[in-house]
Every structure is written in structure tokens, then in C-alpha cells.
Design a protein that fits this description.
Structural class: alpha+beta
Radius of gyration: 20 Å
Mean pLDDT: 78
Low-confidence stretches: 1-63
Strand content: 25-35%
Number of helices: 6
Helix content: 25-40%
Shape: globular
Length: 260
Amino acid sequence: MARDTTKHRPVYKTDLRDGGRPRPKSLEAVGLLCASARELLGSESNPGTLLSDGKRSFASENVVNRDHALPNPSWNKDLRLLFDQFMRKCEAGSWKRLPSNNHSPQSFQDFQTRFVDPKLPKEQISQARLFTRSFEDGLGFEYVMFCNDAEKRVVCFFQAGPYLQGAPGFTHGGAIATMIDATTGMCAFRAGGVVMTANLNINYKRPIPLCSVVVMKSQIDKVEGRKVFVSCNVRSVDEETLYSEATSLFIKLDPNKKLA
């Protein structure tokens, strides 16, 4: 029997400023757009994996390990253009794209062995998900990171979904802080191994429009023993607008000491 998808169809209006292309009436419609795109590409329980040749694999073993740092239908034009630009840099060998899924990377597996309290329920630990990858496509944190280990830099391209709203029409400051922490933390990790945030200072210069794309550039400023100092700025795609500036201090974890 054919499935009735009428209730999933978003309502559009035409905006001549946008070249006459259909645009959603509300943020709710944005979520419906994402749901419709997922129906085209695969079910929510099996969204598949976008392969390097542009094809999508729906093998069940790929679902858990899906790479969220690859384009999906919710990415807007700016995010896709930046992705393509840096993928060309990766081909040149100076930069590397960092894969990302909803579980901690393999390099952090020893973290759980060394630092997580063994008394915690294993079932709850097994259900843990990376916070920035816990939303459905297009609704929360959409981002991709690239690193240049020789220059000790990490760049993150971030698109804030409608579920990250703070003031109406703008991205929540806490969501911005989350992505700054994730970007600077990855920068510190690439330079010093497993680290944890000790201090994060952010100066918010301008609010970031919801669903827009920003460029987060982070770099290592200095390393003093177990201390890793990182700075970061958040700018518009054309880099003419400065949204935020931040400095972070990370501490390399001592494998011989418990966190608690």
C-alpha cells in the first residue's frame, strides 16, 4: 500500500530576493525539509553512508560508523563550497579532513579505560553519544573540521540548525561556545594527545544568524609542559565579519592519575 506522506510536506513561499526559489515559511518547515531529504536517501534508522564517489551505502554495518563530516542534504551552499575548497587543499597534501561520527573516536577509547569510573552502569556508557552529533541532520550542529598538523591549526566550518536558537533568529551563545570548545579542543588534541578543557574565554562581538555558516579558525599559541594554549576566531564566510574571539587552556591528561 502506498505510504501517505502528505503530513511531511513543507509549505513554501517564494522570495524574489532569493531568485524566486521556494523558501520555507518557518523553522518548523526547515525540520520537515530535512525529514523529507532523509526519506529520499534512506530511512531514519538507516540513513546510509555517503561514499567518496558520491554514492550512498545502506549496509547495516555502516550505520553506526556513519561519517557526519560529509555533505548531507541539509548543508547549505556556503558550507558545501567551503567543504569543496578545503578538499582540494587536502588533495594538495597540506590539510586533512577529520572524520566524525556520533561516538568518540578510536583514539579516545583508552580514555574510558583509564579515566571513567568502572562503577558506572555499562549500559548507560554504551548508549553515550557525542553531544555535537546527537541531533538529526540539519537540526543542530552541522560541521566539518580540517587540520594542518605542520602549522598546528584546525579550521571548522559550522552551520547552526534551527534547534540551536537563542534570541529569535540567532544562534544560542552556548552552542557557539560548544563549537569553539570542540574546535580548539581538537587543535589541542592534534598537538598534545588526550586533553581536557581547563579554561575557555570567549568575547562575543556579534550575534550569528541562525542557519548561517561561520568559519572557526584555531591555532596552538604555545605549549608549557602539560598546558596547551589555543586561540580561535569566528568569522563570516567572507571573513569580513568577526563574530567571536576566544582563548582556551587545555591540560594533557596524566594516565597515572584519576580524574575523580
